[in-house]
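protein under study:
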Amino acid sequence: MTAAVNALFQPFQLGSLQLPSRVVMAPMTRSFSPNGVPTADVVEYYRRRAASGVGLIVTEGTTVNHPAANGYAHVPRFYGEDALAGWKKVVDVVHAAGGKIVPQLWHVGNVRRQGTEPQPEVPAYGPMEKRKGDQVVVHGMTRQDIQDVIAAFAQAARDAKAIGMDGVEIHGAHGYLIDQFFWEGSNQRTDEYGGSLANRSRFAVELVAAVRAAVGPDYPIIFRFSQWKQQDYTARLVTTPEQLGEFLAPLSAAGVDIFHCSTRRFWEPEFEGSELNLAGWTRQLTSKPTITVGSVGLDGEFLQFMVKTDKVAQPANIEGLLERLNRQEFDLVAVGRALICDPDWALKVREGRMQEILPFSREALKTLA
């Protein structure tokens, strides 16, 4: 193993969180949990990644206990005895394999379509009401609704701690509920949760603070955020480092320990005049550890595979990534599709067997390999 690659396999410690490597499995919706309960195949799917050298697994998005949290079929819940028992099995096998694991806690917000399980009659919830004719398709959240959702996230975090998860990740990215409050395009409220970016961030800040209060001072909280949205890939919450600092400071103060900085391509600079990516800027501005992510290990970015296609993403060298990691631009590296198609990706990288890494295609999404 070269000195550069060795950086990826150094231990990482933050308080009680001790990771055997800097490789993180990125959260990726797989939809293999009927009725929201992780199956034996899901348990084995995560075990294989931990056994092959992934230091931290961030699970696929798991819905909190709110009637409108879910937006997709067969995604796992993070509430209810049956679902939590399934996640406890995942925790136990990941720990036995030497890895660590956190659930990604998720509410989809206004992208939910009526008819979605487990309560098909419930409309979507979002920052603002939307109607189609006489029908309310998105329920504009009241202050009480906001408090109910915050309480659901806090309870999910308590449950994560109770079943032995090593922390939690709060999904504040990609145009889902928390991000819908951040984004001016979807939040034009006139109360204290709308207006300036500071006001639009209030929901997230209160949510993080509630999770912190629920789990205590030493339990790791990861917060995932993004500039881009699934509704608008060119969207930008902030356009300068100063604005980014102002956005992140309240979240950091509320209790975030690690920021997971979602970009489509990790190598792209976030702002003009610097080569730092979003994770690099976030680390510099907050002094908190960061996770970088975005097409790591592949030569094609993920949006090409969101539609039916015969394209295949081939393994790509990670020299530039390793150089940035060695410069301590960021602390951890999240790998997505490369770990879907090849559970042994980390092991092969560590052993210099790059030529053996499997390519990614949409076919890989059809099974839990």
Summary: The mean pLDDT is 94. The first strand starts at residue 12 and ends at 14.
